[in-house]
Amino acid sequence: MESNMIYMPIVLAALGLIYMLVKKSWVMKQDAGDGKMKEISDHIYEGALAFLNAEYKLLSIFVIIVSVLLAIVSFIVPTTHWLIVIAFIFGAVFSAFAGNIGMKIATKTNVRTTQAARTSLPNALKISFGGGTVMGLGVAGLAVLGLTAFFIIFFHFFMGGEWTNTMDMTVVLETLAGFSLGAESIALFARVGGGIYTKAADVGADLVGKVEAGIPEDDPRNPATIADNVGDNVGDVAGMGADLFGSYVATVLAAMVLGNYIIKDMGGNIVNEGFNGIGPVLLPVAIAGAGIIISVIGTMLVKIKTNEAKEAQVMGALNIGNWTSIALVAISCFALCTYMLPETMKMEFFGEGLVDISAMRVFYATLVGLFVGGVISAVTEYYTGLGKKPILEIVQKSSTGAGTNIIAGLATGMISTFSSVLLFAGAIWASYAFAGFYGVAMAASAMMATTAMQLAIDAFGPIADNAGGIAEMSEQEPIVRERTDILDSVGNTTAATGKGFAIASAALTSLALFAAYVTFTEIDGINIFKAPVLAMLFIGGMVPVVFSALAMNAVGKAAMEMVYEVRRQFKEIAGIMEGTGKPEYDKCVAISTKASLKEMMLPGLLTIGFPLAIAFIPMIFGMNHQAIAEMLGGYMAGVTVSGVLWAIFQNNAGGAWDNAKKSFEAGVEINGEMTYKGSDAHKAAVTGDTVGDPFKDTSGPSMNILIKLTCLIGLVIAPILGGHTSETAVAVANEEIEIVKSNDTSSNEVEKQIEVTMEMDGDIAKAEVSIKTTMNGKTSTEIKKLEGTEEEVKAKIEEIKASLQ
Amino acid sequence: MESNMIYMPIVLAALGLIYMLVKKSWVMKQDAGDGKMKEISDHIYEGALAFLNAEYKLLSIFVIIVSVLLAIVSFIVPTTHWLIVIAFIFGAVFSAFAGNIGMKIATKTNVRTTQAARTSLPNALKISFGGGTVMGLGVAGLAVLGLTAFFIIFFHFFMGGEWTNTMDMTVVLETLAGFSLGAESIALFARVGGGIYTKAADVGADLVGKVEAGIPEDDPRNPATIADNVGDNVGDVAGMGADLFGSYVATVLAAMVLGNYIIKDMGGNIVNEGFNGIGPVLLPVAIAGAGIIISVIGTMLVKIKTNEAKEAQVMGALNIGNWTSIALVAISCFALCTYMLPETMKMEFFGEGLVDISAMRVFYATLVGLFVGGVISAVTEYYTGLGKKPILEIVQKSSTGAGTNIIAGLATGMISTFSSVLLFAGAIWASYAFAGFYGVAMAASAMMATTAMQLAIDAFGPIADNAGGIAEMSEQEPIVRERTDILDSVGNTTAATGKGFAIASAALTSLALFAAYVTFTEIDGINIFKAPVLAMLFIGGMVPVVFSALAMNAVGKAAMEMVYEVRRQFKEIAGIMEGTGKPEYDKCVAISTKASLKEMMLPGLLTIGFPLAIAFIPMIFGMNHQAIAEMLGGYMAGVTVSGVLWAIFQNNAGGAWDNAKKSFEAGVEINGEMTYKGSDAHKAAVTGDTVGDPFKDTSGPSMNILIKLTCLIGLVIAPILGGHTSETAVAVANEEIEIVKSNDTSSNEVEKQIEVTMEMDGDIAKAEVSIKTTMNGKTSTEIKKLEGTEEEVKAKIEEIKASLQ
């Protein structure tokens, strides 16, 4: 049993995927409605597919370039294996495939939800949430399947399927990091590109349609309306899916890396504990696997009974599913920690040496993660939820104009960093105190275990939103729109809390990756009292800010192109406003697609280029590799700290503005007067929402990927920055360890013994030659330290050996 | 000569202050204009004084509380001397006094500038810049005078006026840190309180006056107009003055601390090099002293000749003065570095050991500082200057509404962090590479040497602004307003670049303080690979964000109170709009005063409370002091990195919005059409400016103080966190070093030698007892390490000694 545990996650992932397929075919079998609805839905489906295809075409070029670069590196740098290229490609393909599944099902589910809403709210929820479930399980299932499969393959390839030593496992995990890198790279472009797409279409449609032409939202006469609905799927569904796919893989990977070092700290041998001797490495994968089945159970619990249900009931149904999943994950963490880990482990704590850590403490760390995942949603809900104090204050401030509304929104977003950061800082501290950085990574892993459930809840929102749009465009009875609006309203709340979850997961994942990076490079921590490291901390802190600005500007540019196109169509197409002329939806879709793909380049380059520049430019100037590793670590820390702050700030400010605007729909009391849509205060709130749109849907969510990808690139570069010896370097060292005995070289009895150890630090070989001379029963030892290129050092060693004989 | 160098700065400072008095009496002798002008000017003067008095009353309570706390600490903690209380009080008083001088002269100069502008632009410049000069020399002169005087006193008190050892000098400088702490505390409240005051009055006056009542800016019928003009002085003059006073003192102090460690690294003795053996400690003070005289020369060069001069000529005159000062500082740095430093010094570089550093390399480091001071102004000017690309883009975006205007402004502020941070990071790296953290501190010191000149240029702006206001309110000929507008326009540019200078100085000062802190506490650097340190880095990063939000909200609250009062007066005072009823200016002044003093509490508490909580809460729980010191260091780094980013972001975004709005005054081309004031695009730009106001005048500039004060509090706490042994601890160690010789204790010839070294780590005593036993000519050494309370360890040592005899 124990030695088969390695296959457990793959089986559970497969089960999850099978359930996903069953659910998918059930959704697809539902009634897709009549002609007009179907037509609109098909437009959205095709638009989304057009974007995905264009994006994948572009990304395949990117994947090929990176693959070639990785291949070159793997042939030049002895510590990197070429299999990382394969892993990278599969990571990219799996991530794209997961996004594809989500987008397809979402664009098929929307119309079926509208159709169901004509007769039954419970059914509409069942279908829309069913679509979300397919998305969630698709992402989580593929993540666990891909990661586990590659782990098993590499584990057998490099280690023969049984624990050998830390070094070999390091090679396994470094190669596996390629999978994560592939996934996260695709996620970057999906999030940024999708974010630009959705807001460009949204802003473009609103500016000309609502403001200039005075037609309502989702009006079929607006040429940008299809692009707008496509955007919801591209940004919120595919983008979020790719984001969490990346987090899921990266978190588990980081925990595995840190698990490997526990085995090292325990003397490199816990074989007698079963699980192929790699229990701590396997544990995070096992929890991820369990999470998939738990999420299936959780999704089954989401249902309402009556057609009369309101937002509260729908929200309640989602909460039951969510909290049950979290509770079940806690139970499974307890079971798996106690089952798979040695009762007591040894972990190296920085500056404290080896400390005994019990399996229970790892379990406590996972509880910290689950706690953070739950509480961060509540915090986000407080700062962005309808009817909450911060929103009411923004509403009040709207009465004195857009300026005060915007100041209030900015301040709300900024203030919201307080509790979130204290929560994260507390979580880091607590999980570290329980079980070191392995504890931090396990906290993240536990939190991420419910990813499938979280995604189902998340993806259900845009589906309901789209369903409402289709109801509007196909001119259904008002009751249909009322029902989809209930779902949509709940979806808005879950979208905000989902973003909180995504940030929390990104923050913990990045820290785990950061820890894995430091451990990989074997540097003495990251000391910011060294000026170059401190300088990099500054630069790292700046990157998320500049990234956000680029993303915001990109939305502005793309939106302007959309505005010109919509204006052109209104002017040139005869009868478009009377509903007799047909708008050219596809032109708007094409513009959004092209602009978003073009505009995602620069932020992408910034994300990938900076860490590479920091690593390789000083390397060209011959700087010490360990010093570079520390600088890069400082950069990673800067990006993470600043990125988390800007993510919280932007997401919550955007969410707050959005709901302040929405508050006017039901009417709000300002200075004792009821104020509604169309008032000056409402107009001010609309301006606030315009500012918030790119914040919450483009730059804010992109921060997650930025910080994860930065840390992941660091992890992949780590072997080049070296410190640790792997593969060939080990081989060299082993080959050179030999003993020379030479009795009687002169009249005295002399015995000489020579021991050589050699290590590669990047390109530099370091060797220690110890020569023991025993003469007349007395022993003296001479140690020579050598450094230089591999050839030089080897030649020198031969010379020394020759001199002794 | 060499041993009198210590008095040189005090003499130069006194000379500067004498010149200041001469200049002041010249300004005061100028014609203060006729009845109406004088009346308005008196209103402003009295309003400003009322605020200062109320503020000082409140702050004296604060100073008393902190003094008592410091006194208690100095009696409990053996490593802190009670003289720090005296230094603290004087620092606070000097800073307040400097602010007072500036405010008084500014409010007296404004009306004289208006009067001069009736006949001559060159004279108007001469007077307004003369007022600025008084302010600049007052601040810089008092800073150098106070700091040097206390240094000399403490140097004689603790060391007898001649180098003894590093430990004694550490005590001198730690006590001197009290002066800096006092100055920076006052600066915090002056900046934050002043920032809230000025914007509350401004927004309140505009919202009701301009928007609701439709009367122009600075109209005497507006009851808030005096408060608005007072605000310019309170915020821009007194706030900026206190800010730079604090920077000046803190920078020099930090450089002195690091200079002390150079002497330590050189073996604790460079007496033969002259300068009382403290050349490296004295150098930054000497440069500061030279800077004062250089600034006097610089200010003398600022003049224009013709009444027909335009902005460019005025700007040119200021530039000549500024660049000449910078060039002269460079020359004096060369002279002083080569004169006062040993030709070659030894400095400990972290992880590299002792490195030989020549005096020339310190000079190069000062050049780095001067370079940064010059370039940062150019960078700021690019992102916020009229007619520059970023501003033109914001103007274009205004045509599609306030939303796009604001997005563009936010993005500009965010993008501007790129070049500024790269510049700072480069400066840190370069000055560190030249001469370690001493180099970083010397770079900051050189940059700050022109403070008097910078402040003169800065303070001249609000004086000209006020002069224009007085011209408007007293209904002068249009030519008068035209002339003051030329000065005001130049003043707006120098205000923006001055903010850049203030940020740069705060950033470098904080880093120098940070370095001094690490050196003081003698921790092994700040390793962010330890989770608690990383957690504090996160929390530190969050504080500037929350601080900014609090400051912004404070402006909003105070402005609302002002709005209600102005509305009330418009309604209740008969004939106010016709000019027959007299508005109650003093009520508005009182509201702004009260509100700003109330609202500055929370941000102040946040700034001071967080570092104290981080230091003392874990101490109560018995955490290791060194670990706490490292955590606090992480917090300081987080605040600095995040604070610098948010300062740049907020200042530049605010400046950009302001000038985008101003662009409409001369007219701008949007989509091929000339657009002017009053257009929809202009209204959108006004909204942007409203958002930018608290950014650039309240929260943005407060960041400087936040980061400096945080690092300074760390430095003052440092002795408690310990690591280094001072005073009593040294005494213990010295007392215990003794040698026990005991010949012949048995039949063999045995000699035992015992050496004891003992150090205090906070409350914990650590001792190393090495016992050398020589028997039959062979020596063996046994080392015992002891740890515990002082009594325990001492008892144990006695026990060991007894056992040997």
Task: Provide the fold topology.
2 copies of one chain form a homodimer.
Chain A: H1 8-29, H2 35-76, H3 83-117, H4 121-159, H5 166-213, H6 225-265, H7 279-300, H8 311-340, E1 344-349, E2 353-358, H9 359-384, H10 389-398, H11 402-415, H12 417-448, H13 451-473, H14 478-521, H15 531-572, H16 585-599, H17 601-620, H18 625-666, E3 668-670, E4 673-675, H19 680-721, H20 728-736, E5 750-761, E6 764-775, E7 778-788, H21 790-804
Antiparallel strand pairs in A: 1-2, 3-4, 5-6, 6-7
Helix pairs in contact in A: 1-4, 1-7, 2-3, 2-6, 2-16, 3-4, 3-5, 3-6, 3-13, 3-14, 4-5, 4-6, 4-7, 4-13, 5-6, 5-15, 5-16, 5-19, 6-7, 6-12, 6-13, 6-14, 6-16, 6-19, 7-8, 7-12, 7-13, 8-9, 8-14, 9-12, 9-14, 10-11, 10-18, 10-19, 11-18, 11-19, 12-14, 13-14, 14-18, 14-19, ...
Subcellular location (chains A, B): Cell membrane; Endomembrane system
Protein name (chains A, B): Putative K(+)-stimulated pyrophosphate-energized sodium pump
Site (Determinant of potassium dependence) (chains A, B): 495
